[in-house]
Amino acid sequence: MLKALMAAGMLAAGLAAPALADDAPGHPVKLHRYTAPLYAWNTNSYWLESADGVALIDAQLLSSDARYLAAAIKASGKPLKGVIITHGHVDHVSGLDVLRAEFGDFPIYGTEATKAAMPDIWAGAHRFFAMPNMFDEALSETMVLPDHMIRAGDRVEIAGISFEVFGGGPGEAADNIGVYAPALKAVFAGDMSYPFAHFYTGDGHPSGALAQARALRAAYDPALMVYSGHRDPAPVAQLDDQIAYLEFMIAETKAAMADPANLGDNGFLKREARRAVMAKILERYPHYDSFGFTAGEIVPGNIYGAEQEIKAATGS
Ligand SMILES: [Zn+2]
Residue 304 in contact with residue 205, Cβ under 8 Å? Predict the structure, then answer.
C-alpha cells in the first residue's frame, strides 16, 4: 500500500517510479538481475520486463549461468525480445548461444567495433582459459555475434522499453557502450564502471576508460544508480572514486616508467618496478574487489595495460 501511494505521488510529480522498489500492479517496467558466482567473476546480466516481453543486457560467461538466466526469464512467462551487448569480452557474450537455443531468434544489439573485435577476444580467451576446471566447465565453442548495429546517440526500443546508447571507443575493452533506460532512470554501464573494484585496464586503454568514466559521471544526476557489468549497483557519484583510482594508477605507472632504471630491454617495467606500483595501489585500495582472482594477478595485468598505452604514446 505504501509503495502504491508512493508510486501515485511520484506519478503526480511527473517522475517515473523506481522499478526495483516498486512492485505495484500496472507498473510498466521491472528490473531483474542475474549475477554469476564469484569464480565466474560475478558477471551481471540485467533483464527488464515489460508487458510485451523482456529486454536483456549482457549474456554471461558460462553456459551454466546462461541457462539459469534463461530459466529465470522463462519463469516470467514473457518472450525475450532482444539483447544489448555492452562490449565484446567473453564474460558478456559467451552465453549468447545458449540463449539462442533457449529462445530462438532475437535481435542482438552491439557496435560494429565490438563485432569486429570479438573473434580475436574469443580466440584469446579460449587459449588463456583452456586449462581444465578453471570454471569447472568448458567455455562455449559457439561464438554468436551482434546482428543489429548500434552506436552512441542511438535510441533502441526492445519490448516497448527505450534505451539511449552512450559511450563508444576503446576503454575497458576495444569498444565499450552503455545504455540509459528513462523508464527506470537507470544507467547500465557495462564495464565502464567498476565500483569498489580494481578497474580492468589489461586491454591497454586506461585513458579511454578514464575518459568514459568522466563522461558518464558528467552526463547523469549523481544520485541515479549505475548498474555495472560486475559488482553491486552504485550511484553515479561513486564514479569519482573510480576516476581517482584510474588517475592514480596511470600516474604511478608513468612515474615509474620515467626512470630508465625501472625499464627492461623491452621498454616495459621490470618485474620489481611493476610490483612496486602494485604495492602503492594495494596500499591505497586494500579493500577493493578482484573478482575471484587475487589482487596480485589482476593489478599487474592492469598496470601492464597502462604501460602499453604509455609506451605507444611516447613512441618508445
Ligand atoms: Zn566484464
Answer: no
- Surrounding ion ligand 1 within 5 Å at CB are 91, 191, 229
Q: Residue 250 carries which side chain, given as an amino acid letter?
A: I
Dump pLDDT digits (tens) for 128-141.
887 556 788 889 99
36-64: per-residue pLDDT in tens? 999 999 999 999 999 999 999 999 999 99
246-280 pLDDT, tens digit each: 999 999 999 999 999 999 999 999 999 999 999 99
Cβ distance 64 to 137 under 8 Å?
yes
Q: Tell the residue number behind the cell numbers 564474460, with chain if given.
A: 91
* CA–centroid distance, residue 293 to ligand 1 (Å): 13
Distance 284 CA to ligand 1 centre (A): 23
Cα–Cα distance measured from residue 80 to residue 101, given in angstroms and rounded to the nearest whole number: 12
CA angle at 263 for the pair 171 and 199, rounded to the nearest 5°: 25
Cell 549468447, residue? 96
- Global pTM? 0.90
Query: What is the share, in percent, of the chain residues with pLDDT greater than 70?
Result: 90
Instruction: State the chain's mean pLDDT as an integer.
Output: 91
Q: 242 C-alpha vs ligand 1 centroid, how far in Å?
A: 16
CATH of 18-192, one of 3.60.15.30, 3.30.410.40, 3.40.50.150, 3.60.15.10: 3.60.15.30
The domain spans of the chain are: 18-192
Give the H or E element holding residue 9.
Answer: helix 2-12
Q: What is the model's pLDDT at position 284?
A: 97
